[in-house]
Design brief:
Spore Coat Polysaccharide Biosynthesis Protein SpsA, Chain A, 2 domains
Length: 283
């Protein structure tokens, strides 16, 4: 992303307000802060969203049947519907959903998305899709030539999608910005070591972590199309190959956030998630 050097004059009160927001991590300095807030104010929120909702269907006791994980109910609505409604509130309306086993259930429920005020299209993952990298590569033409969001369909959080995207756009040399949350047990997720705004090390589900970090991959990303240059045809998962490589090259950024984060990876995780949520009115 090219940049041009400018000289500007600002009122003292604006500079004081700006300086109060600089923390050395999310906003590194005045130049970075100005670019971030200008981008957030002026850049159109026209980025496309890709949701990976493939994988094997799971039997949920509460539903008495096998379902795609994205379709299990949380607070009275399918998890994926909660995510889509949240995207609509942040004005992300162009959505692609990558589906696998049980994909017809998702298509039938949401159709073209018009009932939710969205434009939804679908990609059918191959029967033997190896993982997230292959599913993302399949969507190369769909996401277009600009920044896009990538979401895992079995994750629900109260993250600010717009802020994530603008934070990502404000970085230098960015290819991917990974949302990060805190977990006590890190062996279940990808573990990130953060230095400033950059992720300098990424380990997928480490049994013996190489770092004391408790920041884990939240399954929510902002990306540039350059990500596709890193995915080989036989690549399976982003977590095991692509992310460690980006971290080594200094092109993987971290976006830590606080608040609700639910990972519905299996029936047991679903039960635990329900115990954390009384209502989702704040999402």
């Amino acid at each position: 992303m090219s940049r041009e050097r400018l000289t500007i004059t600002l009122k003292d009160e604006i500079l004081k307000a700006l300086d109060s927001q600089i923390d050395g991590q999310k906003l590194r300095n005045r130049s970075h802060a100005i670019e971030y807030y200008l981008s957030k104010s002026l850049m159109a929120k026209a980025a496309k969203v890709l949701i990976l909702a493939g994988g094997k269907a799971v039997y949920f006791e509460s539903e008495k049947k096998k379902l795609p994980k994205a379709m299990v109910k949380v607070a009275g609505k399918p998890l994926l519907e909660q995510v889509l409604l949240k995207l609509k509130r942040f004005k992300f309306t162009e959505v692609w959903i990558s589906v696998g086993e049980g994909g017809e259930i998702i298509k039938k429920h949401f159709e073209d998305g018009s009932d939710l005020g969205l434009n939804i299209n679908y990609l059918d993952q191959p029967a033997k899709c190896k993982g997230t990298a292959e599913a993302l590569l399949q969507a190369k033409d769909a996401v277009g030539s600009g920044s896009f969001l990538l979401l895992y369909g079995d994750v629900l959080s109260d993250i600010d999608y717009s802020d994530l995207l603008e934070y990502h756009r404000s970085q230098r040399g960015e290819i991917c910005t990974m949302a990060l949350t805190v977990a006590e047990t890190v062996s279940m997720w990808g573990l990130a070591q953060l230095n400033g705004s950059r992720i300098v090390s990424f380990e997928e589900k480490p049994k013996i972590p190489r770092t004391f970090s408790r920041l884990v991959n939240a399954g929510i990303y902002a990306m540039e199309p350059e990500i596709f240059k890193y995915i080989k045809k036989d690549e399976a998962k982003l977590e095991s190959g692509i992310f460690p490589r980006l971290a080594e090259e200094g092109k993987l950024y971290g976006y830590p956030f606080k608040g609700l984060w639910l990972d519905i990876s299996n029936s047991a995780a679903y039960k635990q998630a329900l115990s954390q949520v009384k209502n989702l009115s704040n999402l």
